Amino acid sequence: MSPETERFKQTLRSHAERKTGAIALWGDQLKVDYATLYAEVVYRQQRLRDEQVKVIALALDNGVEAMLWDLAALFEGLTCLTLPPFFSPAQRAHCLEQSQAERVIAEPGLDDELEMAGYEKTGEFWRRTFSGPNRMPEGTAKLTFTSGTTGTPKGVCLSAESLLTVARELDQASKPTDPQHHLALLPLAILLENLGCYAALYAGATLSLPSQKTLGIQGASGVDVPRLLGCLATRAPESLILVPQLLLMLVSAAEQKAFNPYSLRFAAVGGARVSEELLHRAQRIGIPVYEGYGLSECGSVVCLNRPEARRPGSVGRPLPHVEIHLAKDGEVLIKGSTLLGYLGEAPHTDEWWPTGDLGEFDPEGFLYLKGRKKHQFVTSFGRNVNPEWVEAGGGDGLRIIDVGWGDASRWPTARKAAYARRCPFPTASPAILYNAPRVSCRRMLE
């Protein structure tokens, strides 16, 4: 067991002894205190030990069971592959085959799919035997698949030491606001959310894990907005991890008095470029949002704005566990908590990781991203342009103006198709229309 893993387990044991009645996990219905969490994780560790396997895959919706099995695999020293609910059957089959996952714990709806992939169910485990050499670097605790910039899915192999170092730094970054209730909006299979959950447990906070159905989130981008807002109002979380479009939705809802952010103390946003205008809108209506930056190959978060060190428009200063250097062409290079290697490839041995992102530091050490090296193009006026700049600013003026489709149900088919192509939540319940002088949903519909 690595030093960071031992530290994390000792922290949970301490919570179990000192905070016996404090709620650790809150699923759709079930609530589990810290003493029960620790006991259940130890029990599941033994279950996994009895299976005598090296790789386990979790295809579970957010909930208490998903978190308990995740922690058990972590402490038992197994490789854990978590499959996002929005993956297609072909993507899941690819991940299982490439990872050689010998055991799978999955939602009942995946039974037929797993049988077709050659798995047999005994009890709660789906079992399959693989032949051939192990394709993962030694010490891989988490396997996460990312498309990167080439479009070819790659399995990123990460150590427990790297992951838990990041989680501990995230806990430290939010300490000034002391959030004691984190709600996981994103699937646990998303590395950023997974580590955010670890950070909440490090802090001894309540970790709220409603299922994606309870949240009203369908697939990769569909959101039933009234259902999501209702869940947030009921649970009153103090911290969230958001992607830009979820932040846009909450800001728009708050501006229309459909969401009250009174309980929030810390909301981290990342995953894509966020416009400075949206960040200012969030601050004006009381959402304490902090933009960050990271990538799977570096254990997720490497930079983050913090309560005592914030510069809207930047992705913050580097966290203490990493060093960041800019190459001569402006490419961001990262040292610290980097991947062990890609699945099936030679181990990663270079000291610095080339991100492919362009950036610059201000005099106070805040990093500003300027786009991707490969995406940059030159206009006829000789100006270098990155599509990320356009994407970040293209939806700032979206506002929720009506809960329910309303008159949108009478839109012509062509207009609905245009809406689906341009709006951030094409399957969401509210009609989201445009309220700024840019090409967007409203202009497409007029």
CATH homologous superfamily descriptor of the largest domain: ANL, N-terminal domain
Strand order of the largest sheet: 6-7-5-3-4-8-9-21
**CATH-derived topology of the largest domain:** Rossmann fold
How many H/I helical runs?
A: 14
Query: pLDDT under 50 segments (min length 5)?
Result: 377-384, 395-446
Structural class, judged by helices and strands?
Answer: alpha/beta
Portion in beta strands: 15-25%
User: CA-to-CA gap between the ends?
Assistant: 61 Å
The chain-level mean pLDDT equals: 85
Note the overall shape: globular
Tell me the major beta sheet.
8 strands, mixed
Task: State the name of the first-level CATH class of the largest domain.
Answer: Alpha Beta
What is the strand tally? Answer: 27
In short:
The protein is of the alpha/beta class. It is built from 14 helices and 27 strands. The strands form 7 sheets. The protein has an 8-stranded mixed β-sheet, sandwiched between helices.
State the main characteristics.
single chain; 446 residues; alpha/beta; Rossmann fold; eight-stranded mixed beta sheet; five-stranded mixed beta sheet; 33% helix; globular
Structural topology:
Blueprint: H1 3-18, E1 23-26, E2 31-33, H2 34-51, E3 55-59, H3 64-76, E4 79-82, H4 89-99, E5 103-106, H5 111-116, E6 120-122, E7 125-127, E8 140-146, E9 154-159, H6 160-174, E10 181-183, H7 191-202, E11 206-208, H8 212-215, E12 217-218, E13 222-223, H9 225-235, E14 239-242, H10 244-255, E15 266-269, H11 276-284, E16 289-295, E17 300-304, E18 317-318, E19 323-326, E20 331-335, E21 341-342, E22 353-361, E23 367-372, E24 377-378, E25 384-385, H12 387-393, E26 398-402, H13 413-422, E27 431-434, H14 441-445
Parallel strand pairs: 1-11, 3-4, 3-5, 4-8, 10-11, 14-15, 15-16
Antiparallel strand pairs: 1-2, 5-7, 6-7, 8-9, 9-21, 12-13, 16-17, 17-18, 19-20, 20-22, 22-23, 24-25, 26-27
